[in-house]
Specification:
68 residues
Length: 68
């Protein structure tokens, strides 16, 4: 089997169970979807710098433990 034949063969579906059992080069490629950020409800410059984003919709509270 040459390299072109291997690439044209369909990748069988995998379950989360066998993901740790297969080499990375045998796993299917993933596809990401990232919607465009709308330029609305923007923070003022100083507040945005303080919060790490100018987009109020992306300013989500951290729900975790604070290291003391």
């Amino acid at each position: 089997m040459d390299d072109n034949t291997v690439r044209s063969m369909p990748t069988p579906p995998i379950s989360s169970i066998d993901m740790g059992q297969r080499p990375l080069d045998q796993l299917p490629l993933g596809m990401a979807y990232v919607p465009m950020q709308k330029w609305e409800k923007l923070y003022e410059s100083e507040l945005g710098l303080n919060r790490g984003t100018i987009f109020s919709q992306l300013d989500l509270p951290w729900i975790g433990e604070e290291v003391k």
